[in-house]
């Protein structure tokens, strides 16, 4: 890797021309839905593929393209496709790679909305699926069928930070001519680049670390030219495009991605270590800890371990709620990856409609806490958590 290919440099300069229009240093916002042609001859040249330019907002926008190129540069991808949200990205990618009669394998700790889409929506159109245990490659092998077209996972997963062995996963799927899609939102390209390990497509919720300021919705799919072209063509039809102003915000956010993620890595690791062994904490789920099931794989594949620390308390639903309410720094919210620390009790935030027994059955105990660190002082974050624990 050259200095120019370092993620910290790519976050600032990757995918950008040396000069922007009007000699502006910052990328311009091209706020238009329609593009004009100077003449019929220019239109015909465009239709023949003799000139590359934009035609209509659903098919492309210069500000959005710039954002896509930076994501592609950060991931080491041939191309990237931008969407209006992370879910728009993942659902369009899955639709682009499957059809009636196809079979999809998901690791059971995939994001619940991804599971819901595959189970409830794709199932209506004749696409079957199989859930396999987190990071269980033997179960994956057993689940593959002749009609399997796609394997979907996260790395790390939400909320337990499980990291599947990506090179082994890619090898298994390549032998069976099955495509692989990894949601790498938790990792970001700073900590992990799945394409380097043989994965076909990478998905990001740009709402999280890429944007970095909790003020924009966005999603991206990055990968080789072949599969990303299928995704882009389907986006043209389904229409889940990223608008220019949102693209500008994500592009601006990515300029500081490396420094933000490196800081969040350090803070999260300090928080995990302070909680590990605490008398009021049952278990901490953070890959830097030797006790984490994915510690060896994460240490081998990742440059940093991310900004999310998940842990269970020695207490019930009410005890956990009182702990969260005693925290002074983080806000209670369902997202992550921004400059503000956020905390949630998944039993209430994401699975409120289920009973305690039903939540326990799917691996979401009432005492589970997900803490997404921001950019506040690390010592203050740790002290705040320890103080809240002491108040119980």
How would you describe what is shown here?
The N and C termini lie far apart (49 Å). The protein contains 16 helices and 12 strands. By secondary structure, the protein is α/β, with parallel strands linked by helices. Helix 4 (86-96) packs across helix 5. It has helices spanning 7-13, 40-47, 62-75, 86-96, 112-121, 137-143, 166-175, 188-191, 225-238, 244-254, 257-275, 295-301, 317-326, 346-349, 356-361, 378-390, and strands at 79-83, 103-107, 128-132, 148-154, 179-183, 201-205, 219-223, 281-285, 308-313, 331-332, 342-344, 368-372. The mean pLDDT is 95. A 7-stranded mixed sheet has the order 1-7-6-5-4-2-3, sandwiched between helices.
Task: Summarize this entry quickly.
The chain is α/β, with parallel strands linked by helices. It contains 16 helices and twelve strands.
Write the layout of secondary structure elements.
Blueprint: H1 7-13, H2 40-47, H3 62-75, E1 79-83, H4 86-96, E2 103-107, H5 112-121, E3 128-132, H6 137-143, E4 148-154, H7 166-175, E5 179-183, H8 188-191, E6 201-205, E7 219-223, H9 225-238, H10 244-254, H11 257-275, E8 281-285, H12 295-301, E9 308-313, H13 317-326, E10 331-332, E11 342-344, H14 346-349, H15 356-361, E12 368-372, H16 378-390
Helix pairs in contact: 3-10, 4-5, 4-9, 11-16
């Amino acid at each position: 890797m050259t200095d120019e290919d370092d993620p910290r440099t790519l976050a600032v300069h990757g995918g950008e021309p040396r000069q922007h229009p009007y000699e502006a240093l910052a990328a311009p916002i091209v706020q238009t839905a329609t593009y004009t042609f100077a003449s019929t001859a220019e239109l015909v040249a465009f239709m023949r593929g003799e000139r590359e330019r934009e035609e209509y907002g659903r098919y492309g926008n210069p500000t959005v393209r710039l954002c896509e190129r930076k994501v592609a540069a950060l991931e080491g991808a041939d191309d990237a496709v931008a969407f209006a949200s992370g879910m728009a990205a993942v659902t369009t990618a899955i639709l682009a790679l499957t059809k009636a009669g196809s079979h999809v394998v998901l690791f059971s700790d995939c994001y619940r909305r991804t599971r819901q889409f595959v189970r409830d929506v794709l199932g209506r159109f004749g696409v079957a699926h199989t859930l396999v245990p987190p990071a269980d490659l033997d179960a994956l092998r057993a689940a593959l069928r002749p009609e399997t077209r796609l394997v979907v996972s996260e790395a790390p997963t939400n909320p337990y930070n499980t990291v599947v062995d990506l090179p082994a996963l890619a090898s298994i799927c390549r032998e069976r001519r099955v495509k692989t899609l990894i949601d790498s939102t938790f990792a970001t390209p700073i900590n992990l680049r799945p394409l380097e390990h043989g994965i076909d497509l990478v998905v990001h919720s740009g709402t999280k670390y890429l944007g970095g300021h909790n003020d924009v919705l966005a999603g991206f799919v990055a990968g080789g030219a072949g599969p990303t072209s299928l995704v882009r063509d389907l986006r043209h039809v389904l229409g889940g495009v990223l608008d220019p102003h949102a693209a500008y915000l994500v592009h601006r956010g990515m300029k500081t991605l490396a420094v933000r993620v490196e800081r969040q890595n350090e803070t999260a690791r300090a928080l995990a270590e302070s909680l590990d062994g605490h008398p009021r904490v049952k278990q901490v789920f953070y890959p830097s800890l030797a006790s984490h099931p994915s510690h060896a794989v994460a240490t081998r594949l990742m440059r940093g371990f991310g900004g999310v620390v998940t842990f269970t308390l020695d207490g019930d639903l009410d005890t956990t709620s009182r702990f969260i309410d005693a925290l002074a720094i983080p806000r209670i919210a369902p997202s992550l990856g921004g400059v503000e620390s956020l905390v949630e009790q998944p039993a209430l935030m994401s699975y409120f409609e289920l009973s305690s027994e039903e939540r326990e059955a799917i691996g979401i105990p009432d005492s589970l806490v997900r803490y997404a660190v921001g950019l506040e002082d690390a010592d203050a974050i740790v002290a705040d958590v320890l103080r809240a624990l002491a108040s119980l």
